Amino acid sequence: MLDRIGEFLSNDFSDHHLPIEVLWTREGYKLKSAKDSDWTTAPFGAGIHYRDVDYFTQKQWPFLAPIFEREFEYVLQQGIPLPLVEKGNAIVSGFSSVSKIKMHPAHVPEQIEHSMAMKKMELESEDQIKYVNKEMTNVKSLRLLDHDHLVKAILACTRGKQALFFFPWAKGGDLYNFLKSNSNEGMAAIIWMLDQMVGLCSALSLLADKGYRHGDLKPANILLFPEKSGSYRLKITDVGLSKLHILATSRRLNGTTAKATTRRYSPPEFDLLFDDDGEPVEDSDDIKLSRKFDIWSLGCVFIEFLIWAKLGRQKYKEFDRSMKRDRRFWDSGREDLDDKVKERIQNLKDAVEGTEGDKVVQRVLELALKQMLLVNSDDRSSASDIHKKLESIRDSYSEYLQPKDELDLPLGLTTEQDAESDRLQQEQDLSGANDGMDQNEPEPSSTQDEGLHTTAVPSGHTAAMVQGSIAKLLNQWTVNPDNEFAKKFFSETSSPSPADRSRLCDSCLMLSFREPNATISGRMRDFQTLASTCDMCNLLYAISQRLGLEEDQELHCIRDGSTFKLKGRDGPPILSLFSDPAYNSDDFGSVQVGYPTLYPPESPERYRLFQKWLYVCDNEHGHARDASSGGCAVQMPTRLIYVGESSEHLEDIKDSGFLRYLALSHCWGGSTSLSTLTSNIDKFRSEIPHEQLPLNFQEAIKVTRALKISYLWIDSLCIIQDDPEDWRREAARMGQVFSNAYCTIAATSAAASNEGFLTPKLNSALSATVEPPEGGLLHISEFMENCNRDLELAPLNTRGWVMQERALSRRTLHFTKTQVYWECGNGLHCERLFKLSNPQSALFADSDFPRAILKYYKGGRITLFQNLYEKYSRLNFSYMSDRPVAILGLEKHLSSVLQTRGEFGVFEQYLARSLLWSRPENILLNSITFQDDYHVPSWSWMAYEGPITYANIPFDEVEWSTDCLLRSGEETGTNSKRTVLKAVARDLKLDKLDMHDRVKLDEGSGFELSNLRGVVLGKDKKRESRVQEYYVLLVTLSEEEAEQAKVYVRVGVAWLLEHNIAMDGEDVVIY
């Protein structure tokens, strides 16, 4: 059609005239533009083939994707595509379906979140049209209600025989899946549960006041939205459904994926809609149902909530399985609560022991049984009354509901690392994108970059660059083959190949792996039957057991490169695939060359692998530390251990010049059996008694000798432990020690000095060897490259000092409980030769930390340092006063690369975002006591013991204030040399509800609320669609005194509204 562009221009034909309609006649064709009423042969002219005209009319639609502006309701012509760049798998329910979608940012207003839930409803019958019209009316009306626990539609449109509604995407999923997939957290779960119950009842009360009945209240219609605090807020969706919908969902159509059916939560009066044969009665939609219909359903939800919070996730899952598809809380035959429900209620009563948390459970349970789950709807309390009673319960126990030792994770994230948790999380994730369009819609051109799918935009498009930069920071590990290295290595080294071929059953003999999407599936019972005679079935049976599958459940996995992933390519990897080096790996595409088995712990072949990693890194990556860095001489440690060939001694490194040395990163695990003191340092200069060294030290010496390096640095031997001055000097230089080391040995799996680390602590992975019908030799094993478990959550990496050691090390050998991982500037590699990557952890692999941060734009840089500090705040110290010291070197490197002042976890260039840290929900921080001559400011999280989290504030949507500046004491006019904040503090007007919902104090009480002041750090840019929030640092008057200025200290942060903040303020200094 390119040769027709001239005719288009001469006929003044453009996008404005689309779409066009074509009419074919005996004389030829005529077309009519949407902008004209007359038929014409322009713009194509004469002589065009009918196929070209037909092709144009078919391909015109991508140019018509709508731009949604401020209106709520749109009417689209049939065939017009939606501006989607991502579209997840649909969950079907009745005649509607819900998908996660992402709109192109150029097609929606700036203030609207691009990720949404799209509800698509078909308009095939009169009943469906009737229902959709009611839905449209309800959705438009509900947009006028302002409540934090209600989901409101963003926009709606009709297109042909489809109605489309767009809602905010609930990142936490729905309550039904949440209760099944997340462990409760003791008191934290009860506090969160009670707060959410109050909020849900308040929303239901508002709906009742406005004349609405929900009609289908259940956990699947209660969604979880993340809060700035790190917790979740529950919100009710699908409000105001007609009885037509209730009838339709009571007879679920085949293919639905929803397990929590409407019938379970329906009240006794639900039976009025059906006759004795279970069929809907005539004119059932005319039967008047009370708004107290919802009270029964909410009572059912509360019972399930209590089961999870008090009895635990497993008991909730058992209860869920016992409530079959047609089983309800109400047994209409016996006219009583169902036996299974009564059994769990009794379990709850028996579990109550008299603690304050149990009293809450007991009172909420009584409220549900005595005022909500009543047969006669007139006897049930109103939503307003129940809301007031729940508030009373919360207020009665508010002083007790402050957990002292709860887990330091936001509610909704658990510490469980078992495979079942991963599996369930993947099952509820709807983000597996297809082509981003409906099946019958044209496709836009698209690009793919590290998991980011987007419609192609000009390279200078700022929004696309920022979005892409942040998207790359997902905390997710990917596994890829590294065959260039593997082929070189196996050409020089003998293999650890399994000696015997595997025993295989007839089915496993026929397995094919050539196709990129090859699958393996079968029932656990069948694997178990053949496990004793087939190695492959034995492997699959073991994996099924670890996933928690039941005997009649099916394991289904699909190949993704060199792994097989559970259910689909968005599931977790459960199998690893290796191509035998003796065969051509290209036959099977992207499969790792190698073997599932590891070399023996102290074998020459294993050390040869370590040497090869170092050689490649030195000669191909250029990551080795040379005698000079940037023209400056490298500063050597004060002391090093000379390991020699058979004995060790301590050497003072003064004028020795540049020396290659290794550094040991390890856990002390209490006092070590041998360390350098003022009393033995002279002896150690002659010889260190090898037999008295802890096992970790002995094994580090073995590795150093095997790698043909003469020197080793170990903190407890190279720093004089009973000399405070030596310790203070050397601790300040710790960052340089690891940065200048040739390589770091990390005793990652060892929690104490005498555990040892060379020998893996877990058994080798189960494996099977198969000869596929298409030829070649493949090895299949359990997936064991679990970096989160083996590396991030390992004993060593829970220690505060180690984050700096890892980040500043140029290269590291991580000895984990399963295998060795090699980390350098080229990424993370494992002993089984895979290459692993994670955008957040890539910062640690940077051989010139933190230069890798520069490839990100401003938002990405902020996200990286905030992730870094959040992780650090959760690490352990033997002495909490080390918290600001153990990260000094890392902070200096960050400040240098970001070219800004950085002190005490705060960067001047990003001052407001640096200061908007807070404690996680339901956890209080404790001030750390420091020596008199060391001052850590109150506005720094380093002054407190406990985890922190940063406010989740969108980028480019906030106007930052200049009311707060980072200054030295001299700059404030005081004699102090301490770094302070110079700020404008304002009076605040806060009521009890504000204090509960909008304020987060660091340590709870300890000051007069009347002395509370606020420093405005920023405010949302004005948007018509949302309330403008102010981001505020909370301070109070200090007992300290300073010259010419009042001295304040930080006590927390808040997200306030304009009426909460006084106009005028005063200049203060915040210590």
Please provide a brief summary of the model.
With 1071 residues, this protein is of the alpha+beta class. It is built from 30 helices and 48 strands. The longest helix has 23 residues, at 187-209.
- So what's the overall shape? globular
Low-confidence segments, ≥5 residues, pLDDT <50?
A: 242-261, 399-473
- The helix content, as a percent range, equals 25-40%
N-C termini distance: 70 Å
CATH class of the largest domain: Mainly Alpha
Strand content: 15-25%
Estimate the mean pLDDT confidence: 79
Helical region count? 30
Q: Quaternary arrangement of the chains shown? A: single chain
Largest sheet: 10 strands, mixed
CATH superfamily of the largest domain: Transferase(Phosphotransferase) domain 1
Corresponding CATH architecture of the largest domain: Orthogonal Bundle
Give the C-alpha Rg: 33 Å
Predict the CATH topology of the largest domain: Transferase(Phosphotransferase), domain 1
Number of domains: 6
How many individual β-strands?
48
Structural class: alpha+beta
Strand order of the largest sheet: 16-34-33-32-31-28-26-27-24-25
GO molecular function: ATP binding; protein kinase activity
Domain Protein kinase: 85-390
Keywords: Kinase, Transferase
Region (Disordered): 419-455
